[in-house]
Amino acid sequence: MIKLSEAEWKVMNLLWEEAPLTMMQITNKLKDVTGWTKHTVMTFLRRMEEKGAIHYEEGERAKQYYPDVEKEEAVLQETEEFLDKVFGGRMGLMLNTMVEKKALSKEEISELYEILRKAEEENL
Fold it and tell me: Which one of 3, 45, 48, 54 counts the least CB within 10 Å of its CB?
């Protein structure tokens, strides 16, 4: 299991969408949103490599970075940690809270119905 910081999620999302990328490409793509310099990005890349989240291959001019973790795997891990930490692992409690606070749009409620309908069909 690999724990990603909020900043590392930004890098990973970019790599999941567009890998391989060089350190400068990552810096340029995130600069407007984050203000990070190439030194900051280098630090994140080094840490992420040490964690086993990414790897690089030598390119013609620069290292090419690739994700080593599947997005679905990382999302599931993050979701489970969040549910455990905030709602004691109870999805129903989280949804009830969202409903009570009117935090779900009609579209989101319809999407949840569809997800649950499919899950029910698959479990029959």
Answer: 3
Alpha carbon 123 to chain centroid distance?
28
Cβ-contact 14, 21 below 8 angstroms: yes
Contacts of 77 (CB under 8 A, 6+ apart): 1, 2
The CATH number of residue 56's host domain is 1.10.10.10
Are 68 and 114 within one domain?
Answer: no
Are the C-beta atoms of 74 and 17 separated by less than 8 Å?
A: no
- Are residues 74 and 94 located together in one domain of the fold? no
Domain count within the chain: 2
97-120: per-residue pLDDT in tens? Answer: 999 999 999 999 999 999 999 999
Q: Which residues constitute the domain of residue 124?
A: 90-124
Residues 6+ apart with CB under 8 A from 110: none
